[in-house]
Amino acid sequence: MSITGPEICQSELGVAPWMDPLAARLPGLQPVAPGEWLQRDDAYNGQMNYRDGLLSSRAADVVSAPEAPDEAEHKLLEAVLEVVDADPGYRRAAGAIIRPDGLPVLLGVHRPLVTAARLVQEDLLLLQPGEDGYELTSGVLCFPASWTLSQKVGRGMMRIHEPVDRYDDNMGKRVDRVFSMLQPDQAVWRANLLCYNDPNLFQPRSEGEQRPFDRDKPVWVRVERQTLRRLGVSPAVVFTIHTWLVPIDKLTPEQAATLPDVVRHGGSMGEQPR
Questions:
Q1: Sign (positive or negative) of CA dihedral 82, 87, 93, 96
Q2: 32 alpha carbon, distance to own chain's centre
Q3: Residue 192 φ/ψ, nearest 5 degrees
Q4: Is this structure's pTM higher than 0.85?
Q5: Among 72, 91, 189, 195, which is least packed by CB within 10 angstroms?
Q6: Region 174-192: what's the mean pLDDT?
Q7: With bands split at pLDDT 50, 70 and 90, how would you rate the model's confidence at 274?
Q8: What is the DSSP string of the chain?
Q9: Is residue 258 scored above 60 in pLDDT?
């Protein structure tokens, strides 16, 4: 399944990380303002339609989790439902949540991780303490930016980011401190930036596989707002990814004038694991 039409693209970027001095440097973490952990924008309907299709037709590619849901999954769904209940675009019905696009999501039918992923635009990844520090234990990744969930699950943060040149031991220690210092239900955010020649949100690639880019072809700017939040008093942390995707000609004049040349020519900023 592939959806590349304008319905999955936003009318504008929600954040331009290259224009924010704090977001422009690694790791670029900033506190999340109250009520701003998860976000809903004008591409909600189109992106959720795409997400539903991927969860139905390509579940093996976009979901990775132990056979039985663990406490972290249940805590994640509780946190997502708190956000949903506070958003007037959603409403509760008998045994279901009615999304802003009018579609029901049944409660208690799917595992908590998948139920949560059917409610919000964000991809949801759970990290928990293990032998290699915080390890990726499960997640739903419908909109990967040139990486695959199956290759990263079970790894600690250093091994997840092995292909990222700037993620060295020093950076790893800084990120580990962030995990250890997160207070219950506290969240921080960062952003990254890439350009693609097509507006498909589902862009999986294996480690070492190059992302094709031709600057003479149409260009879409892709920005990911990523958050880390500790789930209550548990040690589990959820990593969320909210993706904005706009044609380069939709940038504001100021955004277009300051877009880094390295990104405009196919590079990246605030690099993803690859």
A1: negative
A2: 15
A3: -130, 175
A4: yes
A5: 91
A6: 84
A7: very low
A8: ----SGGGS-SS-S--GGG-TTTTSSS--EEPPTT-SS---TTHHHHHHHHHHHHHH-HHHHEE--SS--HHHHHHHHHHHHHHHH-TT-EEETTEEE-TTS-EEESSSS-HHHHHHTTSSSEEEEEEEETTEEEEEEEE-SS-BS--HHHHTT-BHHHHTTT-TT--HHHHHHHHHHHHHPPTT-EEEEEEEEEESS--S-B---TT------TTS--EEEEEEEEEEE-TTSS-EEEEEEEEEEEGGGS-HHHHHHS-HHHHTT-EESPPP-
A9: yes
Of 127, 139, 147, the C-alpha closest to 205 is: 147
φ/ψ of 117, rounded to 5, equals -70, -25
User: What is the spatial distance between Cα 197 and Cα 169, in angstroms, rounded to a whole number?
Assistant: 33
Residue 198, CB-side half-sphere exposure with 13 Å CA sphere: 10
Rg (CA), the chain: 18
Single out the residue of 245, 199, 200 nearest to residue 43, CA to CA.
245
User: Diameter of the chain by CA atoms?
Assistant: 52
Name the average pLDDT for the chain. 89
**Which strand ranges, in their side-by-side order, compose the sheet holding 91-93?**
91-93, 96-98, 104-106
- Nearest-angstrom CA–CA distance, 17 and 255: 10
Distance CA 163, CA 273 (A): 6
Distance CA 22, CA 246 (A): 23
